[in-house]
Specification:
The chain is of the alpha+beta class and 96 residues long. The protein has helices at 9-31, 46-53, 77-85, and strands at residues 60-64, 90-94. A two-stranded parallel ribbon has the order 1-2. The longest helix has 23 residues, at 9-31. The chain is globular and about 40 Å long.
């Protein structure tokens, strides 16, 4: 917000998002302990947030779901925008 004020629920949402992210990353951190991962919960437009967070990174990995339909886009809007605007290399990894 331009006024510098924050929504009172932001802190609670941030804490919940960080806890969930920690849970999601736990098995991957155990499996690949030598990989440096910076986990940060950010609110706002996802493509812009991911692109900004990846500035200077060696790689940004984003997930995508496999499409069950034979037609239609293969990438979602966020993944497409990140590929187009991110300065770091982007790896698109199927989640299913």
């Amino acid at each position: 917000m331009s006024s510098g004020t924050t929504d009172p629920g932001d802190e609670e949402r941030g804490r919940h998002a960080a806890e969930r992210l920690t849970e999601l990353l736990r098995p991957w951190r155990r499996r690949y302990p030598g990989v440096c991962v910076i986990a940060e919960a950010v609110f706002g437009p996802p493509a812009a947030g991911l692109s900004e967070a990846a500035r200077g990174a060696g790689l940004l990995a984003v997930g995508r779901r496999r499409r069950r339909l034979p037609t239609g886009p293969r990438l979602g809007r966020v993944t497409h925008a990140v590929i187009s605007h991110c300065t770091a290399p982007v790896a698109v990894v199927p989640l299913d």
